[in-house]
Amino acid sequence: MKHHIKNGRLIDPANNIDRVADLFVADGKVAAIGDAPAGFTADSTIDAANLVVAPGLVDLSARLREPGYEYKATLESEMRAAVQGGVTSLVCPPDTDPVLDEPGLVEMLKHRARNLDLANVHPLGALTMGLKGQALTEMAELTEAGCIGFAQAEVPILDTNVLLRALQYAKTFGYTVWLRPQDAHIGRGGVAHSGPLASRLGLSGVPVMAETIALHTIFELVRSTGARVHLCRLSSAAGLELVRAAKKEGLPVTCDVGVHHLHMTDADIGFFDSNARLTPPLRSGRDRDAITAALLDGTIDAVCSDHTPVDDDEKLLPFAEASPGATGLELLLSLTLKWAQEQRGQDALPRALAMITSSAARTAGLPAGQLGVGAQADIVVFDPAKRWKVEGAALASQGKHTPFLGFEVSGQVQATIVGGRIAYQR
User: Fold this and answer.
1) Which residues on adjacent β-strands are paired with residue 255?
2) What DSSP designation does 136 have?
3) Is the pLDDT of residue 346 over 80?
4) What is the rounded end-to-end Cα distance, in angstroms, of the chain?
């Protein structure tokens, strides 16, 4: 179908576009910006007056819970949540059940996602068989099946020699290894940021050094191997300072941060609110401020939703017993806009959108996140001023738990186009 999106504020950070302009879509691609191509006749017209037209969002961490955890969420429910939140491409970690360590499992997931015909799903393959940290997976076969990189999800590798071999192999074939820096022993069993608040509440802590010790190890291995590593969901000022130094040194590393960590601190646990039980844990105000500084200076490459739907049976428990995680696909845009509003400045909105579009796509090596002529037509149209209340009934995701429940946020998606097809329209 051919679409004409007219009168919208077109923001495309990848191509430095920020102006009111019409956008024309044909054959699943961006056909033109500004003036219609010769002979163009639209099948549908979207009036985007007072709305923003941007590339579809690229989310670097979204657990879809299939296969194996359908009682928490289904592929269909989470894909609908994605397009309702303006997310057109998402990366899913390999910690499903069974683990994504065989090509057949990856192909099945990709096939199921294609049949739903909603957002584009890009799986990460398991770095080791069963995520057990012992035998390496067949990375070449997993790549052929559709994996864009390899990860251990939340399971640290105990044997550093295994990680070394994995990075050597990845470097040889040009694969990216996605690691969340977390020491296997320090902070094990911890549920909150180590600090005065955790001590006062009697909660076991996860110290910042659990992140920094792991980063030191990873950077030494990267120096030795030259492998490209993406660091997932950093949380601390000290960790970001190490990444800043590593980038200055020229190491091939990138990193992202979870959108919840842009706004909240460990103080938001309040009186044991299990909705604020996250991995990595919410940290101090100083750490949150360091995340903002790292976003502004380019140390952080992308912001992700860290979407982890959890059902009532695992969330409505005492804080230390509750499963970590929060729904985030439908909040990624609004929480990023909230961060942009706090920064003010003329370029705050394009800069913030880059973190969840072009920069995120570049980090994952995906041909997405931009609206140049000829690019795939993955588009979100949203009202940046429209305010809405975060409530379970407003969320398409099967996971209804988030520390932002009851908050009023701005930024409501009006339409999401994936590959030239309208996947969602309010």
Assistant:
1) 231
2) B
3) no
4) 19
Span 22-40, mean pLDDT?
96
> Which listed residue (306, 313, 378, 383) is catalytic?
306
d(CA 290, CA 237): 5
Q: What is the mean pLDDT of residues 304-328?
A: 97
- In this prediction, residue 338 carries a pLDDT of 96
Asked whether the beta carbons of 280 and 85 are under 8 A apart, the reply is no
Residues 259, 328 contacting (CB under 8 angstroms): yes
Whether the predicted pLDDT of 290 surpasses 90? yes
Strand partners, 25: 3, 30
> What is the pLDDT, as a whole number, of residue 345?
77
Q: Are 235 and 264 in contact (CB under 8 A)?
A: no
Distance separating alpha carbons of residues 93 and 63, to the nearest angstrom = 6
As given in the structure block, the two tokens for residue 337 are 């806009």
Helix, strand, or coil here: 127? coil
Quote the percentage of the chain above a pLDDT of 90: 98
Q: Given pLDDT bands bounded at 50, 70 and 90, which one contains residue 19?
A: very high
Average pLDDT, the chain: 97
Q: In what order do the strands lie in the sheet with 57-59?
A: 57-59, 87-92, 120-123
Q: How many CB atoms neighbour CB 6 within 10 A? A: 18
Integer CA distances (angstroms), 57 to 67, 71, 225, 241, 354, in order: 24, 27, 32, 27, 9
Say what percent of the chain tops pLDDT 70: 100
Task: Answer left, alpha or beta for residue 273, where phi above 0 means left and psi between -120 and 50 means alpha.
Answer: beta
What is the pLDDT averaged over residues 173-195?
Answer: 97
- Residues linked to residue 87 through DSSP beta bridges, in sequence order: 57
Q: Are 275 and 401 contacting, i.e. CB atoms less than 8 angstroms apart?
A: yes
Burial pattern 249-275, b for ≥16 Cβ within 10 A else e, equals eebebbbbbbbbbbbbbbeebeeeebb
Is pLDDT at 240 greater than 90 in this prediction? Answer: yes
Strands (E) across 100-159 are located at 120-123, 125-126, 150-151
Q: Are 349 and 337 in contact (CB under 8 A)?
A: yes
Give the DSSP letter of residue 175.
P
CA distance 388 to 383: 11
306 is catalytic: yes
E strands along 180-219, which residues?
A: 192-193, 205-206
Residue 236 near residue 295 (C-beta atoms within 8 A) = no
Question: In 10 A of CB 112, how many CB atoms?
Answer: 17
pLDDT at 344: 79
What is the 8-class DSSP label of residue 56? P
Peptide bond into 67 cis (omega under 30): yes
Q: What is the rounded distance in angstroms from the CA atom of residue 316 to the CA atom of residue 321? A: 9
